[in-house]
Amino acid sequence: MTERTPVRSIAVLGAGIVGLSAAIAFARALPGLAITLIKTPADPAALADRMPSTLPSIAAFHDRIGLGERDLLAAGTLHHIGTRLSDWRSDGGRVVLARGDRGGPIGTGAFHQHWLNARRAGKVAAFDAFSPAAALAAADRFVHPADDSASPLSGLAYALRLDPPRYRDLLRALARHLGLAPVPGAFAGVERRADGGVEALMLADGRRIVADLYLDCAGPAAPLRSAIDTRWEDWGRYLPVDRLLLGTGPTRAPSPTDDLIAVPAGWRFEKPLRDRTLVGLAYAAAQTPDSSARRILPAGEEVVDIAPGVRPEPWLHNVLALGDATVTLDPLADANLHLAQAGILRAIDLLPGRDCAAGELAEYNARAYRQASRIRDFQAAHYHAATRTGGDFWKHVRRLPRPDSLDHTLDQFAHRGRLPFYEDESFEPDEWRGLLLSLGMIPRTPDPIASTTPLETVRTALTRIAEANAALPSRLPPYPAYLAQLERRR
User: Fold this and answer.
1) pLDDT tens digits for 114-123?
2) 242 CB neighbour count, 10 Å cutoff
3) 182: nearest Cα among 30, 394, 335, 27
4) Could you tell me what percent of the chain has a pLDDT over 70?
5) pLDDT score, position 3
6) How confident is the model at residue 1 (pLDDT cuts 50, 70, 90)?
7) Contact 112/433 with Cβ under 8 angstroms?
8) Residue 299 main-chain phi, psi, to 5 deg
9) Cα 159 vs. chain centroid, distance in angstroms?
10) What is the assigned CATH class of domain 82-160+238-306+382-480?
11) CATH fold of 9-78+162-235+308-375, please?
């Protein structure tokens, strides 16, 4: 008979942002759970613990663990409304990617199809001109979504840009409040059960940690999860970046907008924090030696190796890998922490009994794989839609194969501007359309439904929407002033 005794204890290996997130979320969901949080030496390649930008989903995670936006602002967090991409197109143009509503109702059919019809007939404003959030991001402005549904600001969506060390300290304080005290230790191995699961986790000082469920939050090396299985799906053939050079730049005025600038060797980023700017260069070792990367980014201080890929079964027996221990991606799509925290909430929502029944683990693993694969596809789509060709990195990008799911997505979109449905997407259809259209992937065939709307009607509506969006930033204070207003209300 299958044992349905509930999980009564967990051990979390790794007490960085991912490990703290997991311990706190499980403690909130199951107040009687015994949790051992093991503070291991930090892995510098654990990008989920180091990258500041996030996706809007982080708000739902914070709601689950009891953190409010005021708490986060006090810990140095900034808002993140969009990303400027410079020089990703062959014409050197800049595009702004942002989330939230885009366009507005025009006759029948989808908004982007009307924009495409107007573009085919002549000159039209860039696609990002029809996103209120993109207009604000381009001007370094931010405001919370309006309550009035008639306002163009009502459909804004935003994420957060964390200060990782301060965010980790905030999580530590919350963990202490919940009675979670990390215990230092270095992983030394596991004792196995007859069924293949883990009986005990061994530390280098001889301590033996016994739990019903073990969470590996220790970074890409995943020492605990790798002790029972080392299967890994390599995504290096789809994603060209295998190195990050990270550094710190001068302090800039607070901004809700990140910058991703394409350069011949890859792309570099600038992410402003309160007291510094995180800068980095993403490149491929086969085209650019580390010494050359340091000349391109003089502020670079540390090289981080990246091996893009995924663990097909993050949850095996009674061991679950989270964050970089289960999927490794560069920070192009800001999804590193999103994947970790989504995995935590999925584990809680699908939590099996102590038996860790195969059917429940299979459901978790299938959903985790689908989600990670579609984020991989979204990242790879940046390269396949980009028209830049200058530089060895970008010449290599032209030769990259496409995963089957991305091939299907891009073929459907290139034909008629339609996106197929995939489960466990992390990016909304408007985000896919914003990326592909803004970088220049224009569908070949007009949409028959949108084509029934008279062209003059479309042009008039597009002009009205673009002008209204262009006027939005002038109605708002600069972001530092808006941030100061929020802080005065605390």
Assistant:
1) 999 999 999 9
2) 18
3) 27
4) 99
5) 52
6) very low
7) yes
8) -80, -5
9) 10
10) alpha beta
11) FAD/NAD(P)-binding domain (3.50.50)
